Amino acid sequence: MSPIGAIKGNWRVLLLGAFLVFAVVALFIPGGIVADDGLASDSVDSGPTNLEFGLGLEGGTRIRVPVAGMTAEDIDTGAVSDDGTVDQERLDGVESTLQSELDLDQADVSVDVQDDGTVTAEVFNDNVSQSEFAAALQTADVDATEDDIRDGVTQSTRDNMIRTIQTKINAAGLSGGTAYESTTVSGDHYIVVEVPNMDADELRTILSERGQVEVVAYYPNENGTQTNETVLRGDDIVDVDPPEQQGEESYAVPVLVSDEAAPGFQQQMNDLGFTSEGIGDCGLRTGDGGVDFDHDGQRYCLLTVVDGEVVDAHSMGNSHGLASSMREGSWENDPTFQMGAPSQQQAQSLSVNLRAGSLRAPLDFSEEQVYSIEPGHADQFKQYSLLIGLLSVLTVSGVVYARYTDTRVALPMIVTAIAEVVILLGFAALIRMPLDLSHVAGFIAVVGTGVDDLVIIADEVMDEGDVSSERVFQSRFRKAFWVIGAAAATTVVALSPLAVLSLGDLRGFAIITILGVFIGVLITRPAYGDILRRLLTDH
Amino acid sequence: MGYFDVPEIDYTRYSNRQLAAVPLAVLAVALLVLSGAFLAYGTPVPLGMDFAGGTELTVQTTTAEGNIGAAFDEQPESVTGTGTENQYIVQFSSTDSQALSDQAEGNLEQDGSAEVVQSVSSTSASFGQNSQQTAMLGLVIAFVGMSAIAFLLFRTFVPSIAIVISAFSDLVIPLAFMRLAGIPLSLGTVAGLLMLIGYSVDSDILLNNHVLRRSGDFYESTHRAMRTGVTMTVTSMVAMLVMGVSAYVFGISLLASIGIILFVGLAADLLNTYMLNLSLLRWYKFEGVRS
């Protein structure tokens, strides 16, 4: 047989071989087929293979949680005119009416123009009822009834929150954490956050902090009584540097104030006396890093407030010429200053909150779904699933051998079924699919369906005695393939809803099984036919 | 050939009615169990945590199994040991997973340096409700899709409907088994049921194909289809049993439930394919075609 003829005659087996080599390279050669993309690099070097493992086999926490709040869509505020210009003052007016009517914080109300030009009002607080919300809208001269209000928040709010959460978990120094949205069949939206190597309590703490940072001026007013006034909000800060240590129990986060907010802030500091009599006059810090408001006389402090809690109190210093540059009015040209925090940890979280921005709406943890597993326990699962997989393959091999007793038939059958799993594993390593328990179930199902189909081929081909000629073999093989194709089609159809619908962890199971069916029908099963033909027609 | 061989059944001894009676009776009993349970409990099968809401903790503790319940403010629904020493799975109907893990950490004896709470999984009732709808929708789509393919493949009513009826029965019998054995419906069992829709029709397709698309005697074709089909189904059943039992021992409930459901479903499939489907096919072949 000429070399070309040999290739032509065995192309199915050669294709299987090529796929196997490809899979083994993807599995075991460090770096795999595609170069590292950096993000996953630290999890790759943890094992002998390039396989990536999901939460269930690696350890970590996943929280699925809806956003608390309700929305009135497409309300008629009269703020958007037909030519698309927006009357921002009117929107702010509606927002502040809602805020005072419903007795909410500024952050819990939002009135915004959406991309399509409609105006949407959102309330991020589950203690407000829909009728109260509607009544407050009426008070703000917006014609809205309870029917116009639905539970949940807008897509842009969710997108914004997912970005914020993603920044927060990345900043917490945890690689591989992700935040994404999932939608149920009935149209409920959930935010899903997955973080490896973190327990549920820690993750819940990160997610339940809104992270609203404010700078509050604490100063004596004309009557001499101490007053609080918010002078900067998180949104006013456009750039944040990593925290610096400034002395014992004193850390600072250098920030850059936006060009829009800087002149106002400077003016307020001058008006309130922070840059004159108030310089260096705070002294509310207690020795252990707390803030004590029990004092005599007049004090001028800039309070760092996170989610309504005072973290630190600082005076306006003049060491870097801050107070004098403010007084002269030149500060607004380079509007940087330092926000204080008493500990490294608080400085770090302040910097994260400033960088990520605040969470637009709180999450409703009473509706949460949590899955959390210790790394050690997950590792146990990994070993057990390997063992269960091996046991299943052994069992199948045993049954197949017991059925045929002919090694020529049974051995290639088992080897082919295993090859199918190896190719699938290689594929999973290639696309960096994080494997979970449900994928393991999928792999075992692939061995099962794979062997079933090989049994069909073997029985069909060996039917009515030995295969005498190439032509007889081909015709029998084609007949067998009709059944295999039909069976594959039903399996794919039965599992495709799972691959598309988001039903817990089962997507992986469905995807692996469907992929396995395709690899089986297109690559491994035809190759098994070829192997069988050679073994049976040669003698 | 082989240590086991598929026995040749002399179908000529039984009438179609006799053959169909057995699987239909089993199906009727299964439907009765499910509808009775629906009337008595509100759901045909017991709903697991994934669908009803609740919390499951895996704890590692030297506290005796009998005293674990006392560590929590709320009495656990169940405490079961896993294959690992001193490791238990504790289930609650409460969804306050934070309080429950705090109580576990506070009141259970630590086993060496291992964390007490090894894993937490909690689902709120409303989320479970959502999952129920999704699962239901998934099952319906899968079943309708499979039926459509059956009709496309054979393009004649009786053989196609035979596949659909036997697949329906393949689903209903394991569901009734779950009710009787007290296995709750979980994501794993739903995956098993979906897999069953795809898996169990293979043998029906094989049988129909041999009988309808091949020349030759009905009984000869049937026997050949059975030899292949029974080998397939038995191989899968054994694999699933091994997976189910070993996963149960190791405490991996997802794999355990998929394994057990497929085992029971495939056993039901043997009955349905070679008695129900076969009797319908024989009727179609010998009487239906002429009429």
Describe the structure.
The complex is a heterodimer of chains A (539) and B (291). Chain A is built from 16 helices and 18 strands. Chain A has 539 residues and is of the alpha+beta class. Chain A has 4 domains: 3-59 and 374-536, Multidrug efflux transporter AcrB transmembrane fold (Up-down Bundle), CATH 1.20.1640.10; 62-66 and 157-209 and 363-371; 70-151, Alpha-Beta Plaits; 213-355, Gyrase A, domain 2. In chain A, the strands form 5 sheets. A 4-stranded antiparallel β-sheet of chain A has the order 7-8-2-17. In chain A, strands 4-5-3-6 form a 4-stranded antiparallel β-sheet, covered by helices on one side. In chain A, α13 packs antiparallel against α14 (437-461) and α14 (437-461) runs antiparallel to α15. Chain B is an alpha+beta fold and 291 residues long. Chain B has 8 helices and 4 strands; from the N terminus they run ααβββαβααααα. Chain B has a 4-stranded antiparallel β-sheet with strand order 2-3-1-4. The mean pLDDT of chain B is 87. Chains A and B meet through α8, β17, α12, α14 and α15 of A and α3, β4, α4, α6 and α7 of B. Chain B: Keywords: Cell membrane, Membrane, Protein transport, Translocation, Transmembrane, Transmembrane helix, Transport. Chain B: Part of the protein translocation apparatus. Forms a complex with SecD. Chain B: This is Protein-export membrane protein SecF. Chain B: It is a multi-pass membrane protein.
Map the helices and strands.
The complex is a heterodimer of chains A (539) and B (291).
Chain A: H1 3-9, H2 11-28, H3 41-44, E1 52-53, H4 55-58, E2 60-65, E3 70-75, H5 88-102, E4 109-113, E5 119-123, H6 130-139, E6 149-151, H7 155-171, E7 178-183, E8 189-196, H8 200-208, E9 213-220, E10 226-233, E11 237-240, E12 244-247, E13 250-257, H9 262-271, E14 301-306, E15 309-314, H10 322-328, E16 336-341, H11 344-356, E17 369-373, H12 375-404, H13 407-430, E18 434-435, H14 437-461, H15 470-500, H16 506-537
Parallel strand pairs in A: 1-18
Antiparallel strand pairs in A: 2-8, 2-17, 3-5, 3-6, 4-5, 7-8, 9-10, 9-14, 11-13, 12-13, 13-16, 14-15
Helix pairs in contact in A: 2-13, 2-16, 5-6, 7-11, 12-13, 12-14, 13-14, 13-16, 14-15, 14-16, 15-16
Chain B: H1 16-41, H2 49-52, E1 54-60, E2 78-81, E3 87-92, H3 97-107, E4 117-123, H4 125-154, H5 157-181, H6 187-213, H7 218-250, H8 253-288
Antiparallel strand pairs in B: 1-3, 1-4, 2-3
Helix pairs in contact in B: 1-5, 1-8, 4-5, 4-6, 5-6, 5-8, 6-7, 6-8, 7-8
